[in-house]
């Protein structure tokens, strides 16, 4: 969920499927984007991976015939009865290849994006018969969609209780830990640390293109999503790695009642894609160039470099700094290149969102993340022409 | 939702993808099904259409490349921003060809099955700031999943209030009208009929293979699902036809928060399938045999005939009778052949579910539908070998 982000009120400006031509960002060159077009970097639509997938050609093409996959059921052995066995295999294979999370002994629960998983976790860990709802917290700046995810139907079982830093209520609680954090890319741990707390680790961005992989995580409940790992946001596939079998069962029950499972077509496509990523990511510097994480880190590193240079020139903004850390996956010292830039407007500019709006750039106000309107979150995962347009306009703010 | 039915506690016995060989049910011949196998007719997995789709060969095959449909967004014009334009076209085309529902002037909202749509309707029509939750009712016997759909997270905005027949509370309410009804196949209208009531028409089975199409419906909120229309339950695609634009917008908001849209792959596949159905259903008695509704009605009629004969012999059970009505689609007098048989156990057998369990047939107790345990619901939409096994065991009960 820290990763599954979108724009409801606004939408990206029209773009044809061909407006990213396979070249990496050359820096500052705006193509196909009128100078008065609105650039929507409010949501986190991860379209930047398109050139990579084009390059792979038919390697990830799926073909499904009319008579295939009619049934609701995928497996009669798995507690997650709607999980396609091939998707389960690919997920385990990918985490093994990257080394970012343990999967042995975990039950895998698939969801319609990690949004649905997040709700299913809230349901699964909250006792159904308690008099008062469980408090749900996350440390500010927190992912902007957590509050409405928890409160949309005013559940009597759980409710949003705000910033984890100021949380002082008694009793059990649920803490979302987004790491790396959306919006600010920081590696995080829980902050409440009290008995009776249930910690849910939202790891949408714990992949090598965004952050150094420093260990293979083994938390009780870990959420991932294809959207931010491979860029296939339209497929709506997320997965949870869950240690406690009873919690996994209750999550499955939630999915059963609320959507009777998850699209078979999406599961099968993502299964194929994750397997190609898992296979390709063992090759480094290959002339084939089929390592998604190399492609992604190179692109993100270049974009961050350009952004940092531009911000330095304008002297209007401040960007977070990230420590150099050893990445077990790449085997080198590297720093984070988060999917979002968490930008602080310098003195005198109180509403950072408005500052960008003046240049027809839509970003998300710090206010939405339980933080200061002097901050804004800007997507770094757009197509080249949108990123380049953003940099051009930023430069002209000087 | 009346249609999107499944088995959580139990699952169908293992069956290979090839265990339906393309022949229609010949009556009473059990193939590939061990005599001691559990036959699960508790859920409504509509696998009976597989032979039809096999016959069509590659006509409905979809091919999706790795770089296609990455984005969350499908359209920047439609209020339902995640609805694939091709799916919208196919839905309008199919309703036009069948004549079962109006679509002009309606907003189409796509959901992950009609389960998700049903929840989104509850959210969309309930005022968010009222002190007490809206009452949700449906006339018994009602679809067994309505109560848990309404109550799963103990919403403060809406809550299940039981059988519409006995509903006497003041204030606004929501009434689900399932027509034809799940479990009993009866055509229904609302029963409360008071000011301030919002009626949601769940029309999962209002297709010509199940019931005579007597008019093109134009209710305010109508729900359909691919699962029961074409048998593609695994795709999890439902759609709502909604007259009020504000209600449609609130439904879209619910989908956005709870799953950030709906699988693109499933939408594109179902778009293709519905278009093939819409085209084929204009041909009657064609040697190609590409009219799904002809295939479906023939199969259902044959199964109902066999069931009625068998039940008559046993003298242990009673089946509902359906009136002959003119079907505008087929242009003939016909009776309903519902997707479920609503079976009453005759005198002396108080628990109908248990009676079937004695023969290793899993069915759903009338109790689950707010009705009498002397009734049980049995799926008529299984594969041939399961249906035939059911008939064999029923015969041997004499």
TrEMBL record, chains A, B:
Gene3D superfamilies, sorted = Aspartate Aminotransferase, domain 1, EGF-like, alliinase, Type I PLP-dependent aspartate aminotransferase-like (Major domain)
Q: What's in the keyword line of the UniProt record?
A: Aminotransferase, Pyridoxal phosphate, Transferase
Q: Which cofactor does it need?
A: pyridoxal 5'-phosphate
Q: SUPFAM superfamilies per the record? A: PLP-dependent transferases (SSF53383)
Which domain of life does the protein's organism represent?
A: Eukaryota
Q: Which residues form the Alliinase C-terminal domain?
A: 39-397
Region labeled Disordered — which residues?
Answer: 1-37
A single Pfam family, by name?
Answer: Alliinase_C
Protein name from the UniProt record: Alliinase C-terminal domain-containing protein
**According to the entry, what is the taxonomic lineage of the organism?**
Eukaryota, Viridiplantae, Streptophyta, Embryophyta, Tracheophyta
């Amino acid at each position: 969920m820290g990763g599954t982000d979108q724009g409801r009120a606004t939408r990206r400006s029209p773009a044809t499927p061909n407006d990213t031509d396979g070249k990496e960002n050359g820096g500052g060159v705006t193509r196909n984007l009128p100078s008065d077009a609105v650039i929507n970097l409010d949501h986190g639509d991860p379209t930047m991976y398109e050139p990579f997938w084009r390059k792979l050609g038919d390697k990830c093409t799926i073909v499904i015939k009319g008579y295939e996959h009619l049934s609701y059921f995928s497996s009669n052995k798995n507690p997650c009865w709607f999980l396609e066995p091939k998707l389960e295999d690919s997920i385990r294979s990918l985490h093994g290849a990257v080394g970012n999370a343990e999967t042995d002994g975990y039950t895998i629960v698939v969801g319609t994006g990690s949004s649905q998983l997040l709700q299913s976790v809230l349901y699964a860990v909250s006792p159904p018969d308690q008099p008062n709802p469980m408090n749900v917290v996350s440390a500010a700046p927190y992912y902007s969609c957590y509050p409405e995810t928890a409160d949309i139907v005013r559940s009597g079982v759980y409710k949003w209780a705000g910033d984890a830093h100021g949380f002082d209520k008694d009793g059990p609680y649920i803490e979302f830990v987004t790491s790396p954090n959306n919006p600010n890319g920081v590696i995080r741990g829980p902050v409440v640390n009290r008995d009776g707390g249930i910690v849910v680790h939202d790891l949408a961005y714990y992949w090598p293109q965004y952050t150094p992989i420093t260990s293979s995580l083994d938390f009780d409940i870990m959420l991932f999503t294809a959207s931010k790992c491979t860029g296939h946001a339209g497929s709506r596939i997320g997965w949870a790695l869950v240690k406690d079998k009873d919690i996994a069962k209750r999550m499955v029950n939630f999915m059963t009642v609320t959507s009777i499972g998850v699209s078979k077509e999406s599961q099968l496509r993502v299964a194929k894609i994750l397997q190609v990523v898992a296979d390709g990511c063992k090759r480094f510097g290959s002339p084939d160039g089929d390592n998604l994480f190399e492609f992604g880190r190179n692109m993100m590193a270049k974009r961050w470099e350009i952004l940092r240079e531009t911000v330095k020139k304008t002297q209007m903004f401040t960007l977070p700094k990230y420590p150099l850390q050893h990445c077990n996956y790449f085997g080198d010292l590297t720093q984070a290149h988060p999917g979002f830039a968490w930008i602080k407007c310098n003195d005198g500019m109180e509403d950072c969102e408005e500052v960008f709006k003046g240049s027809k750039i839509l970003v998300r106000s710090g206010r939405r993340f339980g933080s200061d309107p002097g901050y804004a979150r800007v997507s770094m995962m757009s197509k080249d022409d949108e990123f380049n347009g953003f940099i051009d306009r930023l430069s002209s703010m000087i």
